[in-house]
Sequence to fold (521 residues):
Amino acid sequence: MRRMVAENPVVVMGRRGCCMCHVARRLLLGLGVNPTVCEFGDEAAGEAVALVEEVAVVEAGGGDVRRLAMLPVVFVGGRLLGGLDRLVAVHITGELVPILKEAGALWL
Amino acid sequence: MNFGKDQLQQDMMELYVGYLENNIPHLEHSRSSTSSFATSRRMGIYEPNHQIGMWEDSFKADSSQITCASTIVETDMKLDYMAELEDIPRKGLGQPKKYDQETSHSSDKVLRRLAQNREAARKSRLRKKAYVQQLESSRLKLAQLEQELEQARQQAVYIGGHLRETNLGLSGSVNSGIAAFEMEYGHWVEEQNRQTSDLRTALQAHASDVELHMLVENGIRHYDNLFRIKAITAKSDVFYLISGMWRTPTERFFLWIGGFRPSELLKVVSSQLDTLTEQQKSAVSGLRQSSQQAEDALSQGLERLQETLSETLTCDPSGTPGVTNYMEQMANAMGKLEALVSFVTQDGCLIASMVMNMHLPHKADLLRQQALRQMYSILTTHQAARGLLALGDYFQRLRALSSLWAARPHEPT
Fold:
């Protein structure tokens, strides 16, 4: 999983068949990004969440840890962006496109 | 007042028993057994109707209060009977000798006993009357309550009738949650109308930016409130929220995942803005585009959800090709439906779908909230005030249109 995140500019991680995962993917596709999708079955989902939370702690520098109880989550440029809410919020404020460009996921 | 034969006999029983209680100490019995005791005594000892005449005759000389047996005042009869009890034939009584002794020894004591018995009998009659009256009033109250309950039920059926058509009724508490939400939403609309007119007044009066800022803040917070109560209700009644039955018909016409499209909201807000700077214009344009993209993504997510649920409901787990057993297939489908309704399923896909279904309207509301907030951050206070006014105005007109439409004269078909 870590490898996938590191190697791909945009990764969407979620449960198999989850429609929120679909929303995240469609949004990114609509922007011209082709996200790598990583889907988990039920058994692996718990593990995935734990791993993601681990990453979140590292990213936040051990300070303010955002609770990521829900999949899907999005990684951009190897870094954790957040869940679907964060993705949409960041997009509405206009910050998403610059971030995507920076990660090399988007070309003008 | 009606003192029929029964009443007389009853009184006599009570009096007689009272007398016996006083004079035969070892006779202990509760009130409830009184009647049976008295009855057996009465049956065994005398025939009241037969003996009345006898007693009357023998006492005519002594008593001045004797009247006709058939139309007798209670107290008079009492006196007669009490007087006669002394002369009751001995057969069937416990201790006849005792009676004789008492009679012959002290008439004062006897008279006092008689008075006591009268008193006891009267008291018991009064108690009985009070009890019966209490029963009667309770019965009246009960009838009243039942009537009220029936009326309330009928009203609930009438109001809830169209609700039941539209909500899936997944839990027992559906209607109470819905009723609470509808009430809160009603208050919300009233408050919104108030705020809209305040905005109009303030803008027309060229209020200061400080004042407008406060009104704008209130307005934004008010929309936050709506999203908040929707989120609470979505936990239990998500299908009801999505159905939009809590909105007027014209509002419902524009329904998108339980509310207005964010793009629509932004369009209304910006319709009244003609004083935008170039920077603002491009920001607004960018926002509308982003909002549209997010909206599309959510729409596609919703479609995907519908597909998933549909597949789950129609797929045959046995997978046997050429299964033509209709009943079997129906049973499978029913099983899936029940699983859907009861949330008890091993199919992770189904659980996830249902959970997500509850989140989708929330995501849509979140988008609405974020889009509005972002819009206001682009605008000046004055512009934001006009934007909010435009929004409030729009909804009011939409609702008014609903009422007009509902009240239009119909062509007979």
About this structure: Residues 2-103 of chain A form a domain with the Glutaredoxin fold (CATH 3.40.30.10). Confidence is low (pLDDT under 50) at residues 62-68 of chain A. Chain A has one domain: 2-103. Helices of chain A lie at 2-7, 19-30, 42-59, 84-92, 96-102.
